[in-house]
Amino acid sequence: MIEVHGWDISQQMVLTGAVVGLSYSAIAAGLILVYRANGIINFAVVAFGSVALGLFGVLTEHGWSLWPCLLVAVPFAALVAMVLEVAVIRRLNRPASHGTGGGAPRLVLLMATIGIAQLLGFLVLIFAELLPDVPPGGDFPTLVPKDWSWQVTKDLLVTAREISVLIAVPILVVLLALFMTRTRLGLMVRAAAANADKSRLMGIPVERTSTFVWGIAAAFTATTIIVLAAVQFVTPLGAANGTAQLTLGYPVLVKALLIAMIARMRILWLTIPVGMALGIVEVVFQQNVTGIDANVFSLWLFVATLVVVLTLGRRARVATESDSSWKLSGRARPLPERVQSIWVMRNLSKLGVAAALLVFVLIPAFAQEASQSFLWTRVVIFAIAGCSITILSGWAGQLSLGQFGFSAIGGLVTVRMVNAGWFGVHNVPWGVAVALGVIIGAAVALLIGIPALRIPGLYLAVTTLAFAVFVENWLVTRRWLGVDAVTGQIPVLKRPDAGIVNFSSRHSYYYLCLFFLVVCLAVLAQIRRSGIGRSIIAVRDNERAAEAMTLSATRAKLIAFAVSGGIAALAGALYVTSLPTNTPSTTFATSESVTLVAIAVIGGLGSIVGPLLGAAWVIGLPTLFPDFAAGPLLVSSAGLLLLLLFFPGGFVEVAYRARDALVDRVARRLPPSPARQRADDAAVPVPAVLAEPDGAAFATLADWLVVDDMSVRFGGRVAVNDVSLHVGAREIVGLIGTNGAGKSSLMNAVSGFVPSSGHVVVLGHDVSGLPPYRRHRLGLARGFQAARLYDDLTVRETILVALEARERSRLLPSMFALPPSPSIERTKRAEADEIMRYVGLERFSDQFVSNLSTGTRRVTELACQLAMGARVLLLDEPTAGLAQRETEAFAPLIVQVRRELDAAVLLIEHDMPLVMQVSDRVYCLEAGNVIAEGTPDEVRHDPRVVASYLGTDTRSIQRSGVIG
């Protein structure tokens, strides 16, 4: 026994902690294996072990010995996993072109694993019914004889249970690591995880490989859980029959995820020492901290998760989600022109929302009993909380599994302020207390969201899940939040009395909650129509393009977190007011946060009305049919999986399909609209927003872009080596060179998208140390080779995003339609329409960018640069992917843009006739170095350029006699 700062640490604690930690290591290894194959966190990995353990118990009850039980139970779990992977995960993960339900977002895939886990839970219950007399944990079979023990020292006894774990788990993890690194199938798994498309081209059966990996992961987890069953996780299922169950909850999952993250989601052997260390620390905490602070380890677990995310996450070689991983699964098609004049057709979505709300208004007329009214109030409150998922996950693409933790903060702050108060302020009116709870909830969400600025997607999901566990196990037990130390409950709140209306009855309080729901839906709709909402979605869809249009990705993400946290806190305040008794650790359990995500996905991820539909299904359906035994199965597991399989966009996707079918039917009955005549370009006036003189401050500058000694390195490779160049006022400068010469890397360095050394001066401003969005606010504009822009925004909305460079939208006026937001929006829309008309995009105004041809996207990108009013344009292969005719038309378009914007252009282009035609000067790069500079004629005759790039055939730089 040793003592460290007053804490006792014994040898037995270390042994127990090591064994406990090995259990976490085993689960982490299973998580890593599936993540390497699919890029998702498999919440069902433990459930497969639970199924195997249930079958193992049934077989042992019938007299089977240990090894035959293992040889049946483990393959059974593997078979179940492989069948479910084929039936669910493969169907969802399949590219959309392969059939219905494919190409689902990562969040939908994660929810599918939760649905699988819930479905398997019912199978475990069936096994439990077959085991009425199985004793809890201690009598489970072990791999070594039960009479084995080793008295190492007088203070350390190693029993058969510990010996089994200490032998089995490390061997299994090492074998799994060898499988991944030394076998052909393991190498195929790694290749498929790195790049599925290239793996298919190389003949690797990616889908079958994924299925096999799911089977291996399930078998591995099943084996380790059976071994561990005698040590931990197995407790009595019910006092009446003494049966046993596997108690693996979210706290255990958080620990396994933390271990997996430290192992960088790929290094299997590293899970063993990390897991053992974590287990030892946990046991030491448990043995030395008692009373109300007994669960303080969850606080330090959350802190450790934050530290790991902020320090190790960026360096971890983990497959990150592509920009499209979180896009909306369903969206309505633009209305055909022939039906746009029909008011009902134009307002179908609004009428649908109004009809749904009308149903909720009428519910109290049919739900007369107080209990029914309370249950439907709960539906409304969860719909409000679901609205927070809409903006955070649906729009911002940030997955939060701890959203109900912010609800806990809002609820507890409200109770505390109404009853005891803080700093001498007490007996605060209910409305003021709710407002304070919302503000504090938004502030906490803002702090939790800071890691999202560095590590998005699934890393953030782990952080927020750890936050939810911390809230459930530690925060909601604090006395300073008004929680009773003995009972664990908080005082019951008296429902508010507004004077004119008393909300003490359940019916009246239901309508108060419904009012707040309508306000939340209206705020979401208002944000979505404003520059704030467009900016959030733009950052999610294409962060680089958004920053090149002067948007701050940091600002957009933090706004999403703050607003979502405030909405969730509002739901928590309403929830605690509705409850007759309240034990916060149960009311705000981690599972409720997962339920919120399920509500958002089922209703329709990213849609405004989705939370209402999802809450009605998940919470309301069991309320309607309380005696229907299969109700929980229908809404929680089987129903969730069926919905995700056929309608991954949720109920809103069903509504969109019905709406599109109705619109098509009406359109077929109407005569076609007369074709609109497009005026000649010369007849279209230059938009007023483009004619505004604003270049006086730099009109006398000789060079509008200056790059000095620019170098870019990726590891040990030098992409750009001490390059210096300049672009004069109103000059078009071409940048040519072979693929890999460093052209795009140089342009990325000028834009601020890659780390570099050297200096960049834009319109007289040294921007070398500035982030990308601030560089572009000083007059820089960037065009990208892919011209992908924002898949889930229309052409008009994309140009409106660019107009944010001229006047930025403000949060509170945008949320509540306060001045000057409405007038600014009207002005921006008029300017966007003028710009679209000027460049010939008006007929595409309501088309989503993802549906446009490459040429039309190029024109849209140029329209955005016009809207920004930029003076220095960086164009990266603007003709890539265009047909020959479109390419030939692009040269005069570049010249026109230069003239109308009064701009300078730095142009990367492989089309030599185009670059030689439009450029005033040309630079040629080779291996990151400038090898030639001068007029087009000088560069094309330079021997080094001819030898490295152009060759001796002059036809390569000629087209139709333009260049002779």
Structure, described:
It is a single chain. This protein is α/β, with parallel strands linked by helices and 964 residues long. The chain folds into four domains: 2-288, Orthogonal Bundle (ABC transporter involved in vitamin B12 uptake, BtuC); 341-661, ABC transporter involved in vitamin B12 uptake, BtuC (Orthogonal Bundle); 698-779 and 870-964, Rossmann fold; 791-868, no CATH class. A six-stranded mixed β-sheet has the order 12-13-14-9-15-16, sandwiched between helices. The chain has a four-stranded antiparallel β-sheet with strand order 8-7-10-11, covered by helices on one side. The longest helix is centred in the N-terminal third of the chain and has 28 residues, at 11-38. The protein is globular and about 90 Å long. It starts with a strand and ends in a 14-residue tail after the last helix. The model is unreliable at 96-102, 133-138, 233-247, 316-324 and 960-964 (pLDDT under 50).
Strand content: 5-15%
Query: How many separate structural domains?
Result: 4
Briefly, what CATH class of the largest domain? Mainly Alpha
Q: Which architecture of the largest domain per CATH?
A: Orthogonal Bundle
Main β sheet profile: 6 strands, mixed
Q: What separation lies between the terminal Cα atoms?
A: 91 Å
Helix content: 55-70%
Count the DSSP helices: 38
Please give the number of β-strands: 16
Rounded Rg: 31 Å
Oligomer: single chain
Strand order of the largest sheet: 12-13-14-9-15-16
